[in-house]
Write a structure and sequence with these properties.
373 residues; alpha/beta; Rossmann fold; Dihydrodipicolinate Reductase, domain 2; 10-stranded mixed beta sheet; 6-stranded parallel beta sheet; 10 helices; nucleotide binding
Amino acid sequence: MTTPAKLRWGVLGAAGIARRSVIPGLQRSQHNEVKALASRDGEKARQTADEFGIEAAYGSYEELLSDPAIEAVYIPLPNHLHREWTIRALEAGKHVLCEKPLALTAAEAEEMALAAQKAGRQLAEAFMYRHHPRYAMIREVVASGELGELRSLHATFTFNSAGSSGNVRFVKEWGGGGLYDVGCYPITAARLLLGAEPEAVTARALFSPEHGGVDMMASGLLEFPGGIAATFDCGMWGAYRNTLELLGTEGFLEVPSAFVAGTEGETGFYVTTGSGRRYVEVPQVDHFSLEADDFARTVRLGEPQRFPPQDAVANMRVLEACLRSAEQRVRVELQPVSAGSAEAAAAVEAMDSADGAGSVPASDSFQSKGDPS
């Protein structure tokens, strides 16, 4: 069988996540190559391109999108720019991998998904951790019944950047705040591992006037069908943690480093039952490379997306409901997604292929990274 040509990428912006993780991951992957980088600062673009041995450097995003050699674009721009530049890239005929969260609202995410469909191009949200083999292994443990019936899930993702200055995460109008930045990880994990959508959410947050009024810390409760509760805490003003625990009637599973895993450090997890406690070894692999290769196989070989855009739409429904709950201090009920809708069907397919003051209904949307260069 002939090996397909590598997918040719361009990067819009020189954000830290792009430099630290995604560009190296693309370059280490099997089926991808980075051919161009753009920045609003032409000198910065050239310096970053030289640092990574990238051929072309552009002083504007438009120049990169007009390059016919570029087939796919990675977008690590601040959250409020995701919608605009994703749609512009799709309309330019490029496939798009966009940083999380895909948008600021579910309505924006749906617009982006429809733009991808209209353009006949692939769109994916960059949750790299879901592509790591350990999540398929965790789901296998759950499916085996070893933990018994699932009762609850708890996840954390916190770090302390309160002392930093000029942080785009502190700009509310740009989609700043801890829920959008790291709270989206526990939410996706709960939906993935529980295989369902929450029926209601309650969240509380610390909105800091010192940090543009964004949520610097937040805690949430997601109510899933069958009485299963998923709880989480997240934010940018606490000691570093990124953990996950699944509790069943017969045992529990712990992931010490749930959302960060590289070629070094701990990637495995613990399973504790009446038979004892064991550590499950997991290969140390680059989940950024795995994410890129999954994307390339979809483009080149036509393999189904593991997590299609409709999954991002569903996740945004929950994320914006959490933000609304925290701001209004209310429990927010999520309207059921029609079982026959494309969104519901795609969300279920995505998961299967991954081996206070009373209640108010959730609205359709709620207005609420990276380096804008």
